[in-house]
Each structure stands twice: as structure tokens, then as C-alpha cells.
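Working notes for the structural subgroup meeting. M.R. asked for a predicted model of this chain before we commit to crystallization trials. I am recording the input and output together here so anyone reviewing the notebook later can reproduce the run.

Input as submitted:
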Amino acid sequence: MERDERAGAGDRLSEDVRLLGGIVGNVLREQAGAELYDTVETLRTGAIALRNEYSAQRHARLVDLASNLDPRTAFDVIRAFNLFFQVVNLAEENHRVRVLREREVRLSPAPRVDSAHEAVLSLQRENVPADDLQALLRRMYVQFVFTAHPTESRRRTTLMHLRGLSHLVQSLEAPHLSPSGRDDLIEEMHEVVTALWQSDDVRTSRPTPLDEVYNNLYFFQESLFDVIARVHRDLSAALRSVYEGREFDVPAVLRFGSWMGGDRDGNPNVTPEITVRTARLQKGVALQHYITRLDELRHRLSMSRRRVGASDELLCSIVSDEANLPQAAARLRARTDNEPYRRKVGLMIEKLRNVIADMESGQAPTAQVGYLHPEELLAELDLLRDSLKAHSGSRLAGGALADLRRTVQVFGFHLARLDVRQHSERHRAAVAEILAAAGVCPNYAELDPASRRELLGRLLLDPRPLIGIYHSYSTETTETLDVLAAVRQVQSEIGPIACDTYIVSFTSSAADLLEVQLLARETALLSPQEGWSKLQIVPLFESIEDLRNCANIVAELLDEPSYRANVQAWDERQEVMLGYSDSNKDGGFFTGNWELYQAQRALARVCESRSVTLRLFHGRGGAIGRGGGPTHSAILGQPAGTIQGEMKLTEQGEVIFARYGHPAIAHRYLDQVLNAALRASLSPKIVAERGRLDGGWERAASELSATALAAYRELVYDTPEFGEYFHKATPIAEISELPMASRPARRRSGLDVEQLRAIPWVFSWMQSRHTLPGWYGLGTAIETYVGEDDARLEELREMYREWPFFRSTLDNAQMILAKADMHTASVYAGLVEDAQVRDSVWLRICGEYDRTERWVVKVAGLERLLNNTPVLQRSIRLRNPYVDPISYIQVGLLRRLRTLSETPEHADERRLLLDTIFLSINGIAAGLQNTG
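Returned structure, recorded in C-alpha cell form:
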């Protein structure tokens, strides 16, 4: 039966794709003419035929046709394929929502698979006491941190058109839709696709940090405001139904943060003024949403005093508000004299408007006529709730009003907590300058880490200030201090939690955090002597070496009295961030994952031994080479003791749109994360499974890691020709110029791999279809480990079946191996003119790919990649023929661009070629559904 239902669902997806593909074809003929349409069809059918039956001659003909299109024709051909990918992605998204809906109906009354309800039911069946679950909920804190990492290649304009098209596709399934109504919808879909065709596909200028903030706000407005209340409501309902007779207090367990406007590591465009403006923008969006929801609530709460009463507390609050807001009171009384709930809500709206007006004029919120804190707004919502419950309105109190209350609990007046991030070197330089000016230490920067730590520990316990009013510092040090002043300003204007975390990237010693602590003390954000702190200081460990040392560094910090005072001020809690991207770039796929796993275990032991709560912040990207993959599986695969109801994780680039662009998918994603967090924290079975790591498995993983690391480092860092191959066989130079984000592609100028950020590193290999960061070295590691020993192969198969970490790691490798394509990659390799350089690198990559594919399939017990994930397998197989022509076109464009001199007479031609390459990057990203 299920097979038939899946087949039927697949047929409907095919119908949607055919409908949307037909609309794209119609628009192409109308807008660009039959000749372009025929060219697109020739490339499309040729690529499909080549995928069905490969031949070197057919491959060469298709590459020749695609790579020799003139730039203007190539531009429109790429746009056509890109438009097709956009509508196919949309159709697949809608189909996913359809399948989720139908599965829920089919399984009812059983809970949704991987939902919070299912987690609660499984915990009850494992005899987890209600008290234990309540205790977990009270400390539970799962925060999703949106970052501006440049992996979303679509413009906000495009996202908005696609969302409108999505609504139209969904409307086609409306019951009782008439034939004429269907025709109207299809005509409107033609309009939207035409608008997409006539709009710019890529940004014409690099976005500013505030542009990125505005893009981020779109997802709160589009889905999160409404979804967050539903997720918490579902959790409450699950607890009531499963633990019958037990009342649970369900706090806001899901929260949101942002790096946009606060992350300044290597990004000079993020200034202190930008941070303050970002916080104000976020506050404005949150308050405006509350006004909108209160206005809707005002229409619903129409109960008259002639019909039902109201509490004395509510009536007294109305009298008080009317005395403080006489003009609003007179206006409201004229229309709602007998409707106390409407009058109260109207006065609440007026107070929120006053808060916004004060913020826009630069004034502090005014008591009585506004709200100083979100707790005051919550208290008034509680007045409404309690009065309704006391006067036969429990159902009204538990509906839209309860949802609004939950939204305010989660988003407050800050919307998303702003994290500040800066490179450790900036703090060292600032402290060195301050100490020299104060006559304390003239050579601070030359001291070794232990000496710096010892000096800073003494200074932090000395109450005397180091910054005098007459001191004048360099521009860089002044800016570092101004950032901390901006944090203080944001906290003063919006609230302490609006910006209370400072992340130190490239932490390599305890002194790196003590430096920030000293700067924070000098700017009145903490006091070790008095035991108070308004700033959490968070180390970020990124390189393999730093991951191996991180537990020792945190132990040193927690044993340092001056630093421990700051931890105590945060309820004995220490947050630690782990960087998945740079660790992978530094040590390769398997070693990066294994070192992260071991680092988490070591950090958990250190914190537990010192009675400190560890909150891990996972800096995961979208692509496998940057820690990507299913979040649900990743949480369940974390080491035992590392998730005790608390965690943070980054959401980056195209992942944000994929997870939060559609309300139904956002709800499903958050529900799955909540499921995994509940089970990973409390399920005896899951905790035991995660804790099961016998010596043999650990030895095997360490041996695999050592071999994989050697293979990866030998290619990437020890092969002299590798740098030239990378820069010639991938579009890294062009990606660096792509106006996708405010952040530069490199921390410093130069072409060396070390200075390249992890995002363009992964992005480039994805574009050229090598996907090298997601698998290189793994095949050699497995082959070397197994050798001729069948028992060792069986051991790895057992690890895959029984160890969530190992299974998740290999499944992620499967996915990225399937998205690689060596035939297409060989065309990119042809961009390397020097045959010796090309062969030295390309042949090794090909050999390692074949080796890795063969061994991953063997260990997973499959006949071919992704046989255990047929939906993803089918999606990749269907998309590849549509990506291939864009890849071949891109190679031809790159070859032409690189032969042109940068003289004025070639400026226009270079600009056209570069714009077309930018578009091809966009198209390949849309087709693969992965960038960085």
C-alpha cells in the first residue's frame, strides 16, 4: 500500500515538474525566441542521452557545443537552465510538504516520524519519569544562529518571486477548484515566471552588511514568527497526551541568534555602528510583528461587558493606561466603551508604537507610555489570559493569545541574540598597545602564551583601570574598544540578552580569552572583583591542532580564578564553539570529523570535572565539506555527555532558505531538531548507544584518521603543483569576485590555500564537480585499514550499523560522492595548461575518488551509492543532466576569460564574460542545491 502511495505521490511531483517546465518553455519562446529555446533543448536532450549511455565521442561533441557558445547566447542559455532549476526546486519543496501532510494523515493518531511527539512517546515507553522530563525542559536551550556566510547565491527578489509561485502551485490542489480557476492560476504562474526571467539573476554589486541583515529578517517575517508558537504548542500537547494527568511547564526551548551585523572576523565592513543599527532593526521587526498580531487579536476579543465580565486587575490596568495615554484612550473609548479587552489591546498597541518612536528618535523607552522590557508586555498578555480564563474564556486564552505570548517569550524585543566575533590577533594587538601605553608591559606581544596568561590573570584581579582618558590609541585598537562600547549600548537600549556573547576565533591559548576579558572589564562589561558579567566569552577552536588542545585550554581557563569568576556569573556555564569548516580544510573530511568528535568528549570531561555546564556551539556549514548534512542525525551522533538539553548551531547560506523559506518545512525541521535534542539528552537507549565506544572502534577510527590525514595533507599542502591546479581547475578566482556577501573571500591577500576561507574553498570544488573536501582521503584510509583482512572489513560494517557517529559520517560521504562527477571534473581539469601539473594532481584525485566510492559502498553494505536513500539518489540522477551543460559552458567561459589581458580595450568583453560566469555559478549552485 505504501509503495502505491509513494508512486502516486511521485506521479504528482512529475506532473508539477512537467507543468512548471512547460511554463518555463513557454516563457522562453515568448521572451527569447525559438532559436534560444532550440539551443537549450539540444543541450538538454544531449546531456540526458550522454547520462543514459556514455561515450567519449558524444561527450566531446556536447562539451564542444556548450563551451563554444558566444557569451551573450551562453548568458541566456544559463538563465534558462537556472530558471528551470528554480521551479524544479520549488516543485520538490512543495512535494515534500505534500508527502509530510499525507503521511501525517495516514499515520494518525500515531505521531509524526522524528517529531517531538514521537520523542516524548518514546521517552515514556522507556520509563523516563515525568519529573526528569520536566527538569530537562527547564534547562533546555537550543539556539539556531543565522550567519551571513556567502553561500546563498539567490537575491531576495528571486526568493520573493519563488515564494509567490509556490503559493500558486499549492493553490492548484485546493478542493473543488474549477477549470476556470485552474486556468487563472496557471496564467498567474506564467506572469511570475516572466517576472523571474526579466529580473537580474545575480547581484550587480556586493551586498552591504545591512543588506544581509534585511535578507535575514525575511525568514523571521516569512515563517518563523508563526511557526515557533506551533512547535511549542505541539510539544505541550504531546506532553499532555502521553503523560496523562501531569501538568508540564513548557518554557521557550528554541531560540534564535545572528552573526549578521556582529561577525567582524576578517570583514572590515562590519563596524560598531553597523552592530547597533542591526540590533535596532531587529527590535523594530519584532515590535511591528507584535503590533500586527495584537491588532488581529483586538478584532477577535470582542466580548462585551454586557455579556461577560473582566477581572479587576485588567480593569485597573486600563484605567492606569488611559491616564498615561489620554489621546489614545479617548479614541478607543469612543469605539470600545463596553469592550474592555479591545480597549486594553488597543492601549498595548499604542505603547508598542511609542517604543518604536522612541527608538527611532534615539530616546530611551518611556515608562508608563511604553514598555521598558518584554517582561512588561508579557505581564499584560498574562492579564488578558487570566481574565479570560476567569470569565468562561479559556479557549480564547489558549488560542491566538497564547501563541502571541509564546512568540514574545522566544523573540523578546531583540528578535535574535547578536553574537560578536573577532580574530584573536586583533585582541592581542589591542592589549599590547594598551599595556604599553599604561607602562605595564612594553613587550606584551612578544611574550609566550603562558607568560601572557599569568600577567593577564594578575591584571584582571587588580581593580585599577588601564585605560586613561588621555590615552590615544591606533585606529585598530580604538575600533576594538568601540565594538565593546557598541555591545554595551545595545544592551542598554534593547536589553542584556540582545548582544551578550563574544566569540574569539582562532583561539589557540587561554590568554586569547583573558585578553577579551581584560578589554571587557575596561569597557564596563564585567568585573571579576565584584563577580558580575554582561558578556559571555566563547573560544572558537578551528584547526586540527587547536581541536587537539582545546580541552587543555578550557581547563586552564576554568582553573584561572579571574576567568572562573566570569563563568560563575553565567551560572557556571561555559560555551565553546567548534569550527567544522576550517578543521575540514585543515585536516580533510574524516580527520576533521573525528577530531571534532574527540574534542567534544574531552571538553565534556573537563567541564564535568569542574562542575561547569558545557554548551557546545556547532559551527556547521551547508556542504558536507563544512560539517553539513542532516541535523537530526548529527545531533544523535554526538558523543555522550555533550548534549544535556543545551546546544547552539549555525545556519548558513542556502541552508537558511532551504530550512526556513517555507513555513511547513521550517516547522518540520524544528520539530526534528527538538526530537533529536530530547532523545539525545534523556533517552536511556540513545544515551547508551552514543556512549558505546569500545576500544576497538576508537582504535579503528584513530587509525583511519591518521591515514586519511596523511593522504589529504600530502595532496593539498605537500604537493607543489596543487595550488596551481586548484586555481586553474576551479573558478576560485571568479568566486572571489562574485558579489554574494560583504565578507572578503580571504582573511589576507594572497593565493595560498591557508589564507583562503573555508567557504570559497568548498564552493570552488562543488562548482567544478570534484567535491574533494567531502571525501578525499577516506578511501585510502579504509583500504589501508582493511588490507586483506575480512575481519577488519566486518568491524567497519559493525561500526556503521551500531555507531551513530560513524554511520552519519559515511552517509554524508555517500551524498557528496554522489554529487561529484569525474567526467565533468575532467573538463575543468583541462583548464590546467601545464600537463605535468594537471596529471600530477588530477590522476590522484580520480584514483582516490574511485577508491573512496568502492570502499564506502562496501562498508555500508550497498550495491551503489545512496541505495539506502533512494529519494536523494533519484533527485541527483535527474538533476545531473541539467547541470552538465552549465558546467561545460562555464569551462568555456573561464578559458576565454583567462586568455584576455586586463587592458582597457578588453574591459567590456571581460565584464560580459565575468557576468556570465557569475550566472553560471548561480545556476550550478541551484542545480546541485549546494554551494558552500
